[in-house]
Amino acid sequence: MDSSEFQFQFIHLNSVSSTNIYALELLRQKSIKEGTVITANFQEKGKGQLGKVWEADKDKNLQFSVIISPKINIEHQFQLSKLVAISLKKWLDTLAVEGVKIKWPNDILVKGKKIAGVLIENNILKQQITHSVIGIGVNVDQESFGEFDRPATSLRLELQRTFDVKDALNRFLEIFKSYYLSFLKGELNLQDTYLKDLFGYGVPQRYQDAGGDFLGVILGVLPSGKLQVNRNGKLKSYDLKELKFLD
Ligand code: BTN
User: Is 29 helix (H, G, I), strand (E, B) or coil?
Assistant: First the structure.
């Protein structure tokens, strides 16, 4: 596929339960073109990872879902997580945000504070991802946040300026598109690009697993998406529910 064949088309909603729920419902009802982007000023039931709620003040943030049709094997689904994470990282670099890291699997941190979260939901047929709904929330103009495990930040807090949300979204989508098309052509070294900016990669940090707290070092990510951590000299691999970051 070349760049002119992949075009974004937008559905903008003032308020919606969740842009991901809306996208999945659209996919159930009719055939949707790859590149459809659903944006909303407000989500009544924004979904986060692990069944959590994603809260964001009305009109101040970016919350959107992009529908793609990657036709890749389900075994490679973590490639999509990497793709989105490296796109967000590159986009924030172009906005001159400093100290951006990818926190496994695909949160985006700025100097340790969370600025963006990603929830990918796939439709699968015969082991193939027919459609992927990539839901992304970015804190843009919001200045105060509730209490979370990890403090939050926003573009405004980091850069001390306001943003045209639509313009910011378009810039992100162009970066995502270019990475996605190179990925489809097999021209992208996703693993190296992802690991280069992975929070905690190769450095000792504190974690917690079923066995308690420990100082560990992230050594890699398996194709399944499991995180590989050196825990007291032993290589362990974790899925999302099994490991908590304490740093
Ligand atoms: C997380 O960090 O827990 C993931 C948050 C994902 C939030 C986005 S906002 C747009 C899309 N619609 C949703 O309901 N969730 C995602």
Answer: helix
Q: How confident is the model over 146-185, as pLDDT tens digits?
A: 888 899 999 999 999 988 889 999 999 999 999 999 999 9
The answer, yes or no, to whether residue 1 has pLDDT greater than 80, is: no
Centre a 10 Å sphere on the Cβ of residue 15 and count the other Cβ atoms it contains: 10
Q: Measure the CA–CA gap between 182 and 82, rounded to whole angstroms.
A: 13
Q: In the sheet where 244-245 sits, what is the strand order?
A: 234-238, 227-231, 212-221, 204-209, 244-245
Q: How far apart are CA 155 and CA 139, in angstroms?
A: 6
Please list every protein residue whose CB sits less than 6 Å from any atom of ligand 1.
18-20, 43, 46-49, 52, 54, 63-65, 107, 117-119, 135-137
Nearest C-alpha to atom 16 of ligand 1 is from which residue?
135
pTM exceeds cut of 0.90: yes
The confidence score (pLDDT) of residue 196 equals 97
